Amino acid sequence: MTTKPRSAEKLAIEGGTPARQRPDPPMYPGGMLIGAEEEEAVLEVLRSKRLFRYYGPVEGPSKAEDLERAFADHMGARYAVAVTSGTAALICGLQGIGVGPGDEVIVPAYTWIASPLAVAAVGAVPVLAEVDETLTLDPSDAEAKITPFTKAIMPVHMRGLPARMDAIVELARRRDLLVIEDTAQADGASFGSRRLGSIGDVGCFSLQFNKIITCGEGGILITNDEEIWKRGMMHADVAAGSRHNIPREEILGGVNYRISELQAAVALVQLGRLDDLLTRMRERKRMLKAGTEAVARRKGILIQPINDEAGDASVAFIFFVDSPAVATRVAEALRAENIGAGVMYDPGRMDYHVYQHWVPVMAQRAWTPRGGPWRWARRDIEYSPDMCPRTLDLLGRAVHLDVNPLLSNQDVEEPIEGINRVLEALT
Fold this sequence. Notes:
CATH superfamily of the domain at 36-271: Type I PLP-dependent aspartate aminotransferase-like (Major domain)
Largest sheet: 7 strands, mixed
Strand content: 5-15%
Oligomer: single chain
CATH architecture of the domain at 36-271: 3-Layer(aba) Sandwich
């Protein structure tokens, strides 16, 4: 008597037994590990009543300053500024490198809407460029979008994958441009042995709850350039000029994006968890890839290529099928197997990660009729829903799975079985 292989069993979506016994835990890598250490760090701040980074009723060290020093050291940078959000980090980073009205910044068409809106917030124009199969900025299309008014390029390390920083930095230096890295989804990842965020002129991170490490909401910018640090720090703190003894003739006005001592205390503990989280996710992603690549290859399915596999944060496992219709069917079938999966682009579903849905950007909408960077741009700027067709094609055919650091080996083996079963049946 022969036993039918599990891969030949009926799919769960057709009434078969699901490959997984239970669904994935929530995908909040650092957030799910919040425990006694974070609690004690917060209580320490509360007991001291020193909730503001510069002073309190008693003298003592600042958690925000401790976080800045520790984060800069961990990422291989000289300077850091801790702020209230990843968006604030981007805005301060753009101010740090001197981007302003009339300038253009090249932004990938696939990124969270905060990336282009940060550009608009400093008065500059976001110019959209295609992504490639890594779903990060395509350097060749970025070069094609350069104009005499381009000031900077913003690679975004989406879903934890490093962008092609060698090609992007070479392009920027050759064309006399600056590089601001959006590292919000890739804390601790690297390219060519250097931590992301430390390769360009300035790097910007997020500590929002969905990110790899978190304090609920927060952000950090890093740089190796003292002038960029001073400018970014002054924009983050209206009184930074006096607090840091900056000469009067160099002081610029800013806003208050200062991180709180409570946030910084949690972030410091989370920073200590970062490398272990990355190790766990990388190990599990390697298992997923090794277990599915034979079926994927035979079925003509492309597993997302990675510019630097050793540096991938490994928060996601992504593959491309033939069409959006197939992607939708595969994702539905995987969910029926208790495997968390989704498509990455649906034209009818609002998703601020995809340029078509960046409503205020696409409509060039500002808070006042005479405001907004598009009113004072130095050339006519046009956006259209079909302006980045390759990005839409790739996203439309992509199936996405989270790689959760809480998964056990069995938790990974079961989805491998289910993925192979679904791919065999539906592609």
